Every structure is written in structure tokens, then in C-alpha cells.
Amino acid sequence: MRFYITTPIYYPNSEPHIGTAYTTIACDVISRFYKQKNYDVFFLTGTDENSNKIIESANKVNKKPIEYVNEMAELFKNIWKNLDIEYTKFIRTTEDYHIKTAQFVFQKLYEQGYIYKGLYEGWYCIHCETFWTTSKVDDSKLCPNIECRRPLNYIKEENYFFKLSAFEDKLLKYYEDNPDFVYPDYRFNEVVSFVKSGLQDLSVSRKYNNWGIRVPFDQDYSIYVWIDALTNYISALGYPFELDLFDKYWEVAYHMVGKDIIRFHAVIWPAILMALNIKLPKKIIAHGWLMYDNQKISKSKGGDIFNLKEIALSNDKIKISALRYYLLREGSFGQDIPVSLERFKYIYTSELSNNIGNLFSRVLAIIEKKLNKYVFKESDFSYIQNSFINERLSNFDKELSNFNYSKAVLEILNLADYLNKIIENYKVWEIKDKNLNQIMYELVYSLVVLNKMLYPFMPFIANNILEQLNLPLESLKWDYTIPDSFNIKERKILFPKIENVLA
Ligand code: MSP
User: Fold this and answer.
1) C-beta of 83 in contact with ligand 1 (< 6 A)
2) pTM of the model
3) Edge-to-edge strands of the sheet including 153-162?
């Protein structure tokens, strides 16, 4: 069984912030979860380096574009590594193999008549890399994108166009036959109405200005950013020159994207793939935005409430684990998610420290102090309902398989609450006879299950728990058989007080 998950490739003209981290963590959680279920997983992320914005950003810091993107790509890799992002491959669109694939794709589309040369006249925003139709531009002549509002340039030039309009019916038919193609469904509805309202051909080239991938048959032009960028998902797998990985993973491709780039992935990319005669990805999963003060978080807006670079580079694993958990446990997947430091502190204290952390520490303290660190299975379960535990685990599995992160986390919390109640109801700390061993065994058994569910969200914490429970890495696998006895090790605090974490 295989699974291929991709993040969008990020523009390296600004440093990663929690918004970009959100997409990446969401993919990492899913990727780790499928690995726990013994899937053969390929997890792709990377940087989208050929846009004109790079020239601007490099100029500002007096660097050559290539030096600038080299440094930024290293920074992205470093930050992802410290955030415990376990990707399989990091793609950079300035790498040779990618350039060859993008040119191959462009050439093939051209030869098949899907790319033609025409006159483009209209407004262009360098920052957004977007051509705007006159109807969208008001008298201010500023970029219609409310996030941008920079001055537009009026351009009149010959350009290459992709015949997107030729794919309207085919796309609609595909959507109809594949009602699960886009998740959540309200995003799918938006995509369908957009296509129904009529598709225009798309400008896919710019005048070459010493940066970007050249159009293979016309050296005066470079490939406009989206054909180049989207192609990363197949060039990373070797398409079309070495097909081993492509043959293995492409048919199980899932693209995770923010809602702002859904059309590129659910309309333009499928049309390009249809033109190339390549199967479409299994699913496009669109998440909402992290918001601060009612605005989409970006490097400049609210990006500093959690200084991602500082947190990541300090490699403070408790803070990093808590941040991973916090971002994914919030909201309903697909919707925008307000974030704040106050809310983070509240979630940390009530869910991580007081609920999950306290549970582990109570159970392990009793075993350490009263049972000489050893428990074993003496009889069938008589305190904890195994069916309740199994139900939590199977619900968790179902929710995460459907990308419902916060609902999956609710199963974790539900189980932790239940186990804390068992400790209270049986007044475990007062039990002195041999019943103590059995109830503690049942509790540790349940903690092993709980730890499996914690793992994709907080791998560092789960590994820490493994050490304390003296268990092998395999115990994180879905099919692990939980042992009949435990010899636990030194106890460690999982989640220190919030004051110490944020100090
Ligand atoms: N380079 C293109 C993607 C090409 S994919 C073939 C791009 N890059 S980006 O760096 O601008 O954004 C990448 C992703 O980060 C998008 O999916 C976007 O939604 C996500 N986020 C950026 N800010 C965000 C939030 N505040 N919240 C959640 N995700 C957001 O677009």
C-alpha cells in the first residue's frame, strides 16, 4: 500500500511563517500516520524559485538571485527539520531535473496544439505573478488582490497561451464522475461553479529576463510560473525520464493546498495532466487560513505572534511539539482558523499539561513508587473497557484518514479524559492489594494506544513516552501487539508549566 502526499512548493522570497508551517505540519501528520499503518509513503515539499519576485527580493539584500534562493532553500530545510517534518524529498525548481521536466511538458503541450502564441494586452501584477482582466481592475490601477494592492503594470506583448478553455467539458465530466476529487465539498462546489462560469485561455509565458525556465523552442520567453510550479509534483518523481518512482507513487497522489491556490490545483493542473494524458491525482485537500486579528497571517501580518524561525532554530522540542499540536487541533479542517498566544497557552495548559501530561505522570509515578516499576497482565480487563479504547482508535483512524485533524485530536482527549476518570473513580492511589497491579497494567496498556495517536502530531513527545515505557519504535505501529508486562524507566515531565515553556 502506497501514499504520495505533497505540500505546495513555497515561494522562498520570504521566510517560512506559521501559515506555511501549517500546511507542512498537516502533511507531516498524515505522512507519519500512514507510515504507522505500514504504507509506503512519499512525502514531497520544496521551494518555488523561478518567479520574478525572487529578483526583487534578492536585489533588496544585494545578492544574486541564485545565491539568495540557495540560502533560503537551506533555511526552509533547516526549519522543517527542526519542526520534525520528515519529508522524503525536497524539490527546488531551479534544479536541473525539474527544469528538464518543465521544458518537456511545455514542449509537449505545444506540439499537441494546447499551447499557442497570441497577443496579451492587459494588467499584470509582478508581485502576484498574475494577469488581470480589465473588468477586475478599478480606477486605482492597483492589484485587485486585497492582500496585495500594489500598482499594476500595463503590458502589451506576445505571449504563449494554454488552451484551458478546451477542457471545460472534460473537467466538468471528471468532477461529476469523481465526487471526492476535492475536499472539503464546499470548496469542490466553488471549483465546479467556477468552471461552469466559463474558462479563459491562460497566459503561460513572460519575456525572459535572466531568471526562470526558458521556453524550450523560443529563447525570448520563460515559462510562466504556474506550469513550471505545478509540474514539480511529477518532476520530483522522475517524470518523464526515469519512471520508477512515478509509476510507484503517482496513482496515489494527494495534494494539500491552501484555499487560495485551489483553482490552480483543481482546474489548471488537471487540465494540464489531461493534455499530457496523465491520470489525475486522487484528491486535492484545501485547508483554510490561519488568521490573526481577522487577517490572513503572513510574514508581515501576525507572522510574529509565533516567531517560527526563532522557535524552530532554537530547537525547543516542547514548544515545537505544542505548536504542531495546537495548529492542527484548532478549528474545523478547511475553515479559517484564528490563532493567538492566549489560546495557545490555554490549550497547552488544559490539554497537554493538565490532561495528557498529568495522566502519564500519575500512572508512571504509582508504578514507580508502589510496584517497583513493573506491571504485568494478571487477568482479563476488568477496569478499563477495551471496546471504548478500540472505538477511540478506530474513530481516530477514520477522522485522520479523512483529513479531519481536530476531530482526530478529540479522540485523543476523549481517551485521556476517560483514563483520568478511571484513576479518580477507583482512587487508584489508595489501592494497596494485588488489584493495583492489574489496574495499572490496564492503564499502561491504554497509554500505549494513546501514544500511537499522539505520535503523528507530536513525534518528539511520543518518542519520549516510548523511552519512559521502555518500548521499541515498533510500538507506534498500528498493528503492534501490546506486551503482557512492562518494565518502566525513569519518569520525565512531558509538559512543564507554560511559564517555563514560554520563558
Ligand atoms: N508557490 C505557490 C504554490 C505553488 S504549488 C505548485 C505558493 N506559495 S506560497 O508560499 O505563497 O504559499 C504556499 C502555501 O502556504 C499556500 O497553500 C498557502 O495557502 C499557505 N499559506 C500561506 N499563508 C497561510 C496562512 N496564513 N494560513 C494557512 N496557510 C497559508 O502559493
Assistant:
1) no
2) 0.95
3) 130-132, 115-125, 153-162, 202-203
